[in-house]
Amino acid sequence: MAINKKTMQAKKKTAVKATKSTPVKKAVAKKVTQPAKQKQVEEEMLLQALRGMRDILPDEQPYWERARRVLTHAATEYGFSRIDLPTVEFAHLYLRSIGDGTDIIDKEMYLFNTRGGDKVALRPEMTAGLCRAYIEHGMGVLPKPIKLFSTGPVFRYDRPQEGRYREHYQANFDMFGESDAILDAQTVQLAFRVVQQLGLKNIEFQVNSIGTPETRKDYEKALVRYLESQKQKLCLKCRERLLANPMRILDCKEDKCIQLTAHAPQSLDYLDPDSREHFKKFLEYLDELELPYSINTRLVRGLDYYTRTVFEIRSTDKDGKNYSLGGGGRYDRLIEGLGGESTPAIGFALGLDRIVLEMKRTQVKPYHPPQPKVFLAQLGEMAKKKSLRLFSDLEKNGVLLAESFGRGSLKSQLRVANRLGVEITIIIGQKEALDETAIIKDMISGTQETVTQEKLVESVKKLLKANQVLTIKDGPRENRFSAADQEDED
Ligand code: AMP
């Protein structure tokens, strides 16, 4: 049975009543011998994933597999080394890097104390952990730029909806040690390459520069001055943001805030000369690459650690709805801010759940694993035992094969072989098991031969090769092994 969303949905609502005695109650029960007095606590155990968290079922995996393959391929092509980071870190790492007043820190972190009393958090993003690892392992001595690729789940306690989950998956590409704007352009180039290889269309890159923390102060002052004067027109959330993190108001999706901020001061007007030059160079490189981008002066990204370049990868659906598939930027001060040596850095994160949604929405083909060309059928206990070893011999020699060891009748096994459309079926019956031979049946021509088990691998490989030559010469051949042939075998 295919395990898909529908079958699982039926199970989702299943609630199992479990009874449980607490240890204290058990102890009491030992003293008081009347079983009726053993009060049992009824608990309801819900057999469903937590809100905002989900299983990614086998049906959906071919899309994820395509995404994973494209990502790892791009990482290799661009010289990134893979790094895997813990899912849990000390909470103060995030507090120090992402910053107070951000949604992630104020509302979305999964925070808890360990049994040992450490205050920890499930990672709400990967950059902070990456910088911690960079400092902890003294990566600063390595030749620059140091390019790291990481992927895995991140956790945000947000309001779930389609494309927004409390556990979602990200892939991060980060480069450390170079401040030249060419790396900013190369980062966008890489992100573009990935979405292009994934077959995604209607993708737009939005770029901006938010300058340094020093110039940002002047900019923030000007922004607050402007917004204060129109405070009554802001949504309630943005009125709070005005005090805590005014730049986030530029991100608000409420119409009235969008209209108001359209005329707000822009970070580009407050850049220091070096940041302005950096941004100009960055745009020149993008023009040179002929990448599809636009400048979005409202793009600030939600995290405190960004400096200078910020960018986002967005897709638009047929109704004009806009989604962020990924985003990133420079964080030249973060390593130093966490206690390491001053190290410029740039990176971006792609949201894999959104990428997969986009692949499905735009009907991108999922990954198709190679199909087996050989089927191994067996009849009788002795043949079954031999088949287990022969399966391993063939698999070790690179023959992709299928079997149906759980089925007893040859007819039903051959039906499976036919359904899979294999080119060759190997049959081992009682006689073959005793003789140490095997029947090789060419499912295309219907011919068959008997070979020794010792020569089985060699013979199968030879036949597969001959079939391949014929396919190239004559075009695809039909599987002419008919249902009637199967009846004969029974
Ligand atoms: P961010 O660091 O917030 O820009 O996240 C990077 C990317 O992760 C976004 O562009 C989204 O594609 C994805 N993402 C962020 N939050 C969520 C979420 N709650 N659920 C699913 N994907 C998300």
Explain the overall architecture:
The protein folds into three domains: 43 residues; 242 residues, 2-Layer Sandwich (BirA Bifunctional Protein, domain 2), CATH 3.30.930.10; 113 residues, Anticodon-binding domain (Rossmann fold, 3-Layer(aba) Sandwich), CATH 3.40.50.800. Strands 3-7-8-13-12-11-9-10 form an eight-stranded mixed beta sheet. A five-stranded mixed beta sheet has the order 15-14-16-17-18, with helices on both faces. Helix 7 packs parallel to helix 11 and helix 15 packs antiparallel against helix 18. The N terminus and C terminus are likely disordered. The protein is built from 18 helices and 18 strands. A hairpin with a 5-residue loop joins strand 5 and strand 6. The structure holds adenosine monophosphate. The site of adenosine monophosphate has 16 residues, from strand 8, strand 12, strand 13 and helix 13. The site of adenosine monophosphate (AMP) has 16 residues, from strand 8, strand 12, strand 13 and helix 13.
